[in-house]
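Would you mind writing out the residues of a protein together with its fold in C-alpha cell form for me to study?
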Amino acid sequence: MNKFLNDESRKEIKNDFKTVKISVHKLRPAPDKENFYHLDDAEIENTARSIELVGLQQNTVVKPIAGTDEYEVIAGHKRRCAVLKLVSEGKTEYEMMPCKVEESGDNIRNELILLFTNSTQRDRTDYEKMLEMKRVRELLTEYQKDKKLPGKKQDIIASLLNTNKTKVGTLSNIEKNLNENFMEEYAAGNISTSTANKVAGLDDKKQNALYESYKQTGELTANAVEDMEEIKEPDCIVEEELEGQMDIKDFPECLPKAANNEVLQDNSPAEPNKPESDDYTEQVNEVFAKDTLKKLIKLCRFITEAEALELETLAAKCEERAGKENE
C-alpha cells in the first residue's frame, strides 16, 4: 500500500510537475471512464463565487494532449467549469488558469494517487464510489502486467478509496450484476445502495420482472425484492423423451404376467410428452394452479387493475365449471 501512498511516492509525483498558466479554453475534460464525478449547476455556481472572492487556491492538474497545444484535465474539473462560467460572464481576468503540467509517463500511479485524493477531499455518491472502484480495479490490473501488487487487490482498493472491504464487495456486486435499467435508477439516486445490492442478487429474468413492476408503481421496497427472491421456477413435470430411449412395452417378456397383460392392452402409441391419465393431468393442473396462486398472493400489490379484472373473470368461469360438476 505504501508504494502508492507514502510521502516519498507523493514527492516523486510532485517533482514531475511544472506550473504554468494556461487558457481555460485550451483545457479539455478527461474521458468519461476517468471523469465520472457528477457536477451540478449549484456546485459550479458556488465554486465560481468562491474564486471571485478569494481566487484560485489550488492548481489544476493537467497533461499535454499529443499533437496539439491543448491539455487534458486530470484534477480540477469543477474549477475549470467555474472559470468558464466566470469568463462567459465577461470576467476575462480569470481566463488564464495556473496549472501543474504532469510530464511523467507513469500515468497509472498518478491516477491512483489522484483517485485517492478525491476520495479524501470531496463528497461522492455511492454510485460515484462504485465507478471509482471499477476504475481502480482496471488500473491495478494494468499495473500488475509489469509490477507486483504490494498486497491484496481488495485491500488496496479499500485503502485507496477510503472505505472498507465490505463496501467494496457490495459495490462490486452492484457494478457486475445490476441490470442496465436499475443501474440508471441507482445513478439517479432513485434507489438505495442496500436495495440495489439486493436486486443485483436476482437473475436477469427476475430483475426484468421487478423493473416492470417498479415502472408501474414508482416504488421499490426491500420486501418486494425479498418476495421476488422466493419465487422459484416450476419444476418440469414431464421429462422430454431422450433420443434412443427404450419403452418397457417393447420388452413384454421382462414384465410379470399381470403387468404384461395390462401394458399390452393399450396398443395405440401415446403422444410424446403427454400424460396418459386424465386424473394425473388434473392433479398436475391443480399443483400448477396452487403454486401460481401462492405467488400471486405474495405479489398481489403489483397486480394492475386490468389484471385484477381478468382474475375476477377467471374466478367466475371456475365457479361455473364447479357448479356444472356438482349437478
Observations:
- The two ends are 82 Å apart (CA to CA).
- The domain at 17-103 is CATH 3.90.1530.10 (Conserved hypothetical protein from pyrococcus furiosus pfu- 392566-001, ParB domain).
- The chain has 15 helices and five strands.
- The longest strand covers residues 17-23.
